[in-house]
């Protein structure tokens, strides 16, 4: 079993104290062992296998937020204490910015959690699992292009991003540990970081995504790196997860000429 960084720092003290506590009380010793084992369970980091296509959930937990924010859609996943706390990349992408924002430590399921301490991981992507924003309105001037340009200049201090994953601390979870930095290339399902003892992870989709495109709803159970939250476009490339893409339209019947 793999563990997220920092697991042993929290687990070792109660495990070391357990045998000494046995000299005074078996109950206290058992509590110390339980605390150590529970801490390791909180920091467990199992391997995950993404499905062949689709945008995957960045976190384990249950969908607690699904709403439109301007021209974009936000999906929030609330992690409870028994969930795996390692956050994963929803699509293949390039990290362009990692920003830590100080804030409060309100319960992650409350409306006030939007002001909590958080880390934004902003990315650009050309993933075949997302629709092409240029595929609509060919030959016409689409007003959304103007809106997109205005949006890209509305945050002069922040780089333009295609999608954003936000790790949000809660009332008890006060340590956010990002694993990535600007310039890193990510594959779908790669580890982005972890939040010690849980909380919430948000995924802000690109502007091309509408609320009805999302395939999950509030309350649905998520598995990071495996649960599909947005299906790949019909007729798009098939991401086999091995560093190559296969275009379904380019396959020939058996017995046809082999491709160069």
From TrEMBL:
One of the GO biological process terms: phospholipid biosynthetic process
Keywords: Cell membrane, Decarboxylase, Lipid biosynthesis, Lipid metabolism, Lyase, Membrane, Phospholipid biosynthesis, Phospholipid metabolism, Pyruvate, Transmembrane, Transmembrane helix, Zymogen
Stretches the record annotates as Disordered: 107-163, 239-260
Annotated EC: 4.1.1.65
Comp. bias (Acidic residues): 133-147, 250-260
Transmembrane regions listed in the UniProt entry: 20-43
GO molecular function: phosphatidylserine decarboxylase activity
Broad class of enzyme this protein falls into: lyase
Biased composition annotated in UniProt, kind: Basic and acidic residues: 109-120, 148-157
Pfam family, one: PS_Dcarbxylase
Record PANTHER family: ARCHAETIDYLSERINE DECARBOXYLASE PROENZYME-RELATED
Family annotation (NCBIfam families): anchor_synt_D (NF038088)
Record-given protein name: Phosphatidylserine decarboxylase
